[in-house]
Amino acid sequence: MTRFQLLQLLIGQARGNGFEFRRWYTGNLGLPWQNTRHAIEMLSAEKRYYVLLFSHEFASLFWKGGELMTFQVPSQTFMRRMADGSIGTVKRKAYTRRNTREDAWLYHLREMAASEEPLRYMRRFLRVEDELEDDAPEPQPEDTIKEETPRVGLSVRRHTL
């Protein structure tokens, strides 16, 4: 999936929840509006998509508040002062957390900021990702010709230039 396609799906999902992409684009980026395709191309080509991904307006509508959210809390190790005044190490195990919060999008913004690739983090939350992979036909190059009767039991491909 290309960056353009991924941004298109992310914006589409947020628009389904009430995100006004045109208003956001002209207001935050200060660029004139031509059409949706051009706006997404500008975001993906010039890496301006970080402005979109970390926008509170976009995030709060992409991850709607009040929905059941399940996520893994990683294990933690930190130092703290104990009741007797000594400094000790506290080790907490990882656990799964489920809750419904109005500010769940803030959690996701923090996690996305900590991840090395924010688009890869966002891709996990697309509702149509599996459907796209299952329904997509195998691409066949137009300049490849496959013989009808292969010799020696192998398929032979001829490439034309």
Strand proportion = 15-25%
The low-confidence parts are 129-161
Discrete helix count: 8
Number of strands: 6
Largest sheet: 2 strands, antiparallel
Query: Helix-strand pattern, N to C?
Result: HHHHHEEEEHHHEE
What is the end-to-end distance?
27 Å
* Percentage of residues in helical conformation: 40-55%
Structural class: alpha+beta
Gyration radius over CA: 23 Å
Task: Supply database-style keywords.
161 residues, alpha+beta, two-stranded antiparallel ribbon, 8 helices, 43% helix, 19% strand, elongated, disordered C terminus
Walk me through the structure.
The relative contact order is 0.13. A hairpin with a 5-residue loop joins strand 2 and strand 3. The protein has a domain at 3-65 and 101-135. The chain has a two-stranded antiparallel ribbon. The chain has a two-stranded antiparallel ribbon with strand order 2-3. It has a two-stranded antiparallel sheet with strand order 5-6. Residues 129-161 have low confidence and may be disordered. It is α+β, with helices and mostly antiparallel strands and 161 residues long. Helix 1 packs across helix 3 (36-45) and helix 5 packs across helix 6. The chain has helices at residues 3-16, 21-29, 36-45, 49-53, 56-62, 104-114, 118-123, 129-135; strands spanning 68-73, 76-81, 87-92, 95-100, 144-146, 157-159.
